[in-house]
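Extended Data, panel c. Modelled sequence:
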Amino acid sequence: MNLNLSQFLRFPQSRIWRYLAQVTVVAIAYAVGARLAFSIQGVSPFASSVWPPAGIAQAGLLLFGRKVWPAIVLGIFLLNFVNPSEQIFAVWVGGNLGAILQAVFAVTALRWLGFRPSLERLKDVVNLILFGGLISTQISCTIGAFSLYLLGKVDWAGYFSARWNWWLGDTMGVLIFTPLILIFFRPKVTADRLKRQTEKPKNYLIWRGVWLILLIGLSWFVFESKNDASISRYPLEYLPFPLIIWAALQFGQRAAVLASLVVSIIAIFGSSNGGGPFIAKAENISQAILFLQAFMAVVTITSLLLAATVAERAAAENSLRESEIKYRELVENANSIIVKLEPKGTIIFFNEFAEILFGYNQEEILGKNAVGTIIPQTDDEGNNLQSVYNEILQNPDRFTNYENENIRRDGSRIWVAWANKPLFDAAGELQGILCIGTDITDRRNAEIALQKLNEKLEIRVAERTNALKQSELQLQKQKSALIDLAKNKALNQGDLTKALQEITETASRTLEVTRSSVWLYDRPKSKMECLDLFDRTANQHSKGMELAAADYPVYFQALREERAIAAFDAQKDFRTREFEEFYLIPLGITSMLDTPIQIGGKIAGILCLEHVGMPRNWTIEEQSFAVSLTDSVTFAVEARERQRAEAALRQAEAKYRSIFENAIVGIFQTTPDGEYLSINPALIRIYGYSSCEELMANLTDINRQLYVDPEQRAEVIQLMRTNGKVSDLESQVYRQDGSIIWIAENAYTVCDIHGNLLYYEGTVEDITTRKEAEAALRLEQEKSDRLLLNVLPQAIAERLKQDQSIIADTFAEVTVLFADIVGFTQISSQISPPELVSLLNDIFSTFDRLAQKHGLEKIKTIGDAYMVVGGLPVPRSDHAEAIAQMALDMQQAIIDFSHTQNQDVSIRIGINSGPVVAGVIGIKKFIYDLWGDTVNTASRMESHGLPGCIQVTSATYDILQYKYVFESRGAIEVKGKGEMNTYFLTGIKL
């Protein structure tokens, strides 16, 4: 309940409510305007001198959109409801259609032209007059007058007169009421307009009141007075014109539109009452109304055009005034120096920013020469700025941008970057120079400071260069040592002892350290063993010393946590001072550099460099050299491991070579381009070659020569690129003698450590015997499946193959068809048995093709009867349509058969729809059959039918009655069913 109440309260705020409200408002206004128009005297019973609904409809569609066009129909309906006269009813259809098309066309055209409802642009007024008042109204008057002609309200001779009067009334309605509604009911209120309205003089409303009283009084005097012939010849009707012009110029669009409306209303009612100049001038009422319409058109168009022109001019003036204010504020408040000079150099403009920067006010600076006031005679470097200034005045185009030193009133110097713009008159004479400057004193000072800093940097660079030269010499020495070490055969041949001796000697002599040693961790990293230590002083090597983590825990912890230990004072460094008493002090070691050795991505030991003498700062270059030496240690250790691995590999190769040579399956290696690298004897036998040399000499391109399918090799390559291997891929290949065999391939890619493909490797097995057996088995299976599908539907056959013991299903909605050949007994007595069987085969084969075409299931044939069903074993919603279409096709097929065979053959067809039970019965010669009352009734429809006819039950008729053509047969007596209403299916509805 609360939900319904909430929805009810929200409904007035919904989009549908707003739409209904808009349609209602436009419809009521339309009806009221029409009722008002009928009260005014017109030229004919079917056209008014002014037809307000035309303007109301057009304004409504412009305001609310074309979607409110039903308001026109509703408005005319309301008008007929209030005043159901014959004249209004006669033009109901034509008026509706014409009014809607007229309004929709006008709104579409105006929007396409970019029309603005505010009517503040002259082009909008012109477009409204042209398309809204003159062109679009042709639609309504044409259709409306023609409807009067068709209804006999006017004859053809009066058609164009009725059309003319209709057009004038619609045009006047659009020109008077559309602008009125647009301007008064869709005001474009802006902040500027509100400001202007609040700033109007206090006597503004008084003048508007005076104007309105004068307008009404003068119009009443002109159009309500009954003038005699002597006065009527004067153009009294144009006396209100000055007031209309006054309204457009002084009070704006609303007043102008209101003025035209007031004058038009008074003129219409005055003329209707027999007053005014138009009645006196005209020979008859029709001519008077025509004069009135012409007058209203002139008044309205003039006021609209004049008001739009005034509005456009006012908008342009406001825009120009705002632009002037904006640019004046920009110049006055700009954060740049703006100075204007005469051709002789006299200052004629000096903005506020320039006054503040230079310290002069307008009275002090204007009229004076720039040199001596803001430009000094000479700058701090002694350059003559007077001559430079004179050159600028003589050739301003050459000095559009320059920088110079300027002077303030207090004598302080500043630097200004000037951008100059020479100003020329129409004759090309120089009128002055506009100068815009930016204070760059801070930038200039920064440049001077930067110059001094650069001088200091040059000195430091020179000092650094000398240091770099010394470092470069050291680096060159280290580079040469590393090159010599890389060329040493001991590192490559796996002799680890000799290689480590070379590395420690190179380290000591290159870095000029006393002791160099290589230490490796044991497996648990609980201790380190020295593999080689070189003492440069004694020129001897030693090894075998050990360091335990338990004895030096801080040192071992530092090795694990830091990339390297570069100890300037090893005796005081917390990482190495554990060695102070028994090692560092006795040997005089002051500095140490320990660099980790990495093998296989893990720290395996250290290279230790020990310096004797003054403490030593280890440079980045020396540390980098030590890292390079550890790489050499890593290479030497890996070389030894590689030698051991090669020996193991040779043993494994001998073992696998035996397997390779004696395998019963083919083994191969091929390049990605399809060339064999190696093959075993089994592959040679499979492909029918006598030797490896013969196969590799003849089978040089696997892609083209081996595979029966040229695309097979590409598929193999693609699979290996995607998956890295292929498994049990079966292919047909050519043997050496040209015969074709089946093979099963297993292959994979072999890549280097960087992932680059080296070759393909795999096995081949001859599966020809197996494939032949599979093919024979598959052929027999296909024969068995085809035989089964000839007896059962495919879905039932699949279920039967899955060994379902009982197959029975209920279908709620199917359609069953029985067909029987009429007079079959008589035909069978006239032809031989073979001809009879051939006849039935031709007919039933045609029926079988139709059943397949329509997706239906043939159940069985019994003698000359044919049974087919739609909607099983797979349910379908269009089962009745499919059966009906097949029945019509069967009729046509029998007709065609009779013509081609010269046999007078016809059939009876019965159809019924409803539920059935379907299943497979029997264990031998089984059949898929249907049971149920639906089947029996369909059979009765056939047996009780007529030759050449398709008889259906009410159940089928109810399903197909909207798509097919039926003929009711009425009620017939059906055996076992009683009386039933049946129908004959005769065709398809188009």
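The two ends are 50 Å apart (CA to CA). This feature is highlighted in the accompanying rendering.
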